[in-house]
Amino acid sequence: CLCHKFSDAGSADSLRPIRDQQSLHVTDAAEETGGEVDVDPEDEKAIEMFMNKNPPLRRTLADIIMEKITEKQTEVGTVMSEASGRAAPQLDPRVLEVYRGVSKVLSKYRSGKLPKAFKIIPALSNWEQVLYLTEPETWTAAAMYQATRIFSSNLKERMAQRFYNLVLLPRIRDDIAEFKRLNFHLYSALKKALFKPGAWFKGILLPLCESGTCTLREAIVIGSIITRCSIPVLHSSAAMLKIAEMEYNGANSIFLRLLLDKKYALPFRVLDALLAHFLTFRADRRTLPVLWHQSLLTLVQRYKADLSSEQKEALLELLKCQTHAQISPEIRRELQSAESRDLEDATPVMTVD
């Protein structure tokens, strides 16, 4: 793969008068208000049109643990009938008592020190089982922030990814759905989770996109983290590559646009995948949301000097099939005003797994 530097500092702000522009911008006070946003009902309706009509069931830590318990019970029954007659070791009753006590503390926690028994959970081999005893679904938002701080610092990336996906993400989605905003402590937890960016993308952003049920409000709140925080290019590039290869839903356009707006030096492999993503809509007869057109505009503005003449021609053909009265002319102008890249002179620098 080849690496290049973007050359255009142009901004989509020139299209500020377009109605739906707010769909991609979190309010300036989002961080202070815990990610609170207002969304346009028409924007929300446009997003819903592209949602997965048969979404997969959401899985939480409780679901995983119950599956493991069922498997263990089946395994124990087999072992007892075949061999020693001894059941597999269970948690010590004293351990159960301690962590049920921890659960009560976390369900009322506001500030201050956490129980030491909770802090050692990341070091346990059966940390998921022990964490389950603390009933994460009953934690206060402040407790969830403290837990995220501890787990993001002390768990390995793969384990942190599971915590983000099975505990943090369901809580965030439930909070946004219920209150139409995100609690300040949960917003802080979402931000703190970026301490491990790979786990953040694999445990939060990508599963959210893959679900096909990400709402406009969820996309704006979580997208504000992308805008406000520094994220290594390798992780962002890999995320864009994955999103570009997914089945389309409107929220994906928001995340792509925000990642493109970070002005990374993208590998050509990622840029080509993004172009392929947009070009697949040449035969799509659906009316695409304005979010899709905005993300395409951002791609062209940021990386127009790095497109080949063939790619530019393909995009111009795309504009004949997918048109927005105000945005498409701007995209066309950007494409026609830029020089094409010379692939033969490009130097290989970086690859993305």
Automatic annotation (TrEMBL):
GO terms for molecular function: snoRNA binding. Pfam families: Bystin (PF05291). GO terms for biological process: rRNA processing. Transmembrane segments: none annotated. InterPro entries: Bystin. GO terms for cellular component: cytoplasm; nucleolus; preribosome, small subunit precursor. Belongs to the bystin family. This is Bystin-like. The gene is LOC107572361.
